[in-house]
Each structure stands twice: as structure tokens, then as C-alpha cells.
Automatic annotation (TrEMBL):
GO terms for cellular component: membrane. GO terms for biological process: lipid biosynthetic process. The lineage of its organism: Bacteria, Pseudomonadati, Pseudomonadota, Alphaproteobacteria, Sphingomonadales. Coiled coil: none annotated. PANTHER family: STEROL DESATURASE. It comes from the Bacteria. The keyword Transmembrane applies. It is found in: Membrane. This is Sterol desaturase family protein. GO terms for molecular function: iron ion binding; oxidoreductase activity. It comes from Sphingobium fuliginis (strain ATCC 27551). Pfam families: FA_hydroxylase. The keyword Transmembrane applies.
Amino acid sequence: MSYYGPVLAVTAIVLATEILMGRHRGIYRRDDILVLGLCALLNPLVTRILAGLLIAGAAALLLPQGKGALAHLPLLPSYVSLFLLVEFAFYWGHRWAHEGQRRSALRWLWKIHRTHHAGRYMNVLVTQRINLFWSFVVPTAWITGFAVYLGQGIAVGLVILTIFCWNLITHSHFRWDDAIRRHPRFGTMFRAIEHLLISPGMHHSHHGYGKDGASYRNYAVTFAFLDWIFGTLHIPQGRPWRYGVPGAQPHWAEEVFYPLVRMPAKAKESGEADAAEGAVA
């Protein structure tokens, strides 16, 4: 199942709406443009293709008799099972990436994932701000790649579409959920739902630091109950004080090409409070 066309179409619609509403005005620096441009161009054209070939080769090597072995399974149970498996695996891979900020053994994984967090803004373009090597390490790629080899291509396409559309909702600059969360009648009900599903506010807090920022919480893409079960749930009151990564900023070339390129970090710009340094520690 080809999913890239629908993904591009939905992304373009949300992006155009954000631009028309002025949500992208004056927020990008030269480094942001370089990172976003290179990631958006090279990930679909180069690295995801190479990662797909690597995963397909690994599947054929490890399961030589398995090609199409699960093609007979019905679509709905396959979709639900694959969705839950992908979400569970991503939660832990994502959590370990963030633990790389504290654990030296996982530092490399954090530096690959850090690209997605280094932008000091939140909108749908952040979904494209992905280091070129993330596709080689993220559990989602390996699980869906093996599932395609086993004959579950349609289920894989639907899972990827679901996850990406939810990513657009949670990364978008529009924060319709704030008003619901503060509503005297519906707020309690909505906060209960946030124990099950990731809302835009929850993911925005994951990309933030300072007050109501919590990059060490809300690791799930869709199912907040994973964060609830494993003790990493954070339901915010509003937007985080700042978006991005506090402290010295990674060089744009390292953001895109790490670990092939390693460059000295740039000093934090003036005006950013030092007290926020510990917010992501």
C-alpha cells in the first residue's frame, strides 16, 4: 500500500493553514531552513530507501521462508495488533533516546533524536525535522518492514497513515485542546481522555522546557496509557515556557548528518534564562 501520497497531501493542507494563519512568520533562522530543507529532501529520497533495503535484506536473511507467511490474516486484527506493537516498541525506543541525555551509553541515540527537538518552535514542519539516521534505529521502521515482508503491507500502510496523521495533530501549532482542558464542565473528562490518548498539549510539553515543559515525559505517539502505565505521563496546564533544547545548540550539519558529522555546539543566545538549563536534565 502506497501511503506517501496521502501523507504529503494531509501535511500540505495543515501546513498551508498554519502559514495562512501567520503561525510561521518570523520564527525560522538560517540554520532552521538548512535543517528542515535537507531533512525533508534527503529522508524520503535517500535514507528511508536505504533503510528499507537494509530491513528487507535482514528480514530475508533471518526469515528465509517467511515471505508472505502472514498474508492470510484478516486486516482488522492485523492492523490493531501491529498498531499496538509499533506503539509499544516506539515508546521504549523514544524513551531510551531521551535517557541518552543522562546516560553516556545512550548519548549517540539522543544525538540522533535531538534533531527533532532542537527547533525552537512547534508546527507540522517539525515532523520533517528528523536526523538522516533515525530511520535506521527507530523500532517503527524495523517492525513495519518485517511486517511488509511477512505479507501485511496493507495493515502497515494503515498503521503508518494513522500514526502520521496523529503526529500532524499533536505537532500542529493549533492548540484547540487548551480551551477544552480549561473548560469547567468538559475539562475533567478531557483530562481523563489524556490518560488514554496523547493530545497536542501533551506532545507540546514533550517538546518544551521550563514551566509546563517536560521532554522527559509523554513518550508515546498516540496511546498515552503507555506513559500512564510506565510512570511518564504529564498532563499540562498550558504551553511550555520554551520549545527546543536548552543550552548550547547543535550545529546544523550535526543535526542532519550525525554521527557522520560532528561539530562543536554553538553557545546559547543571550536572553534565554540560565534557570531553564535544568529543565531537561
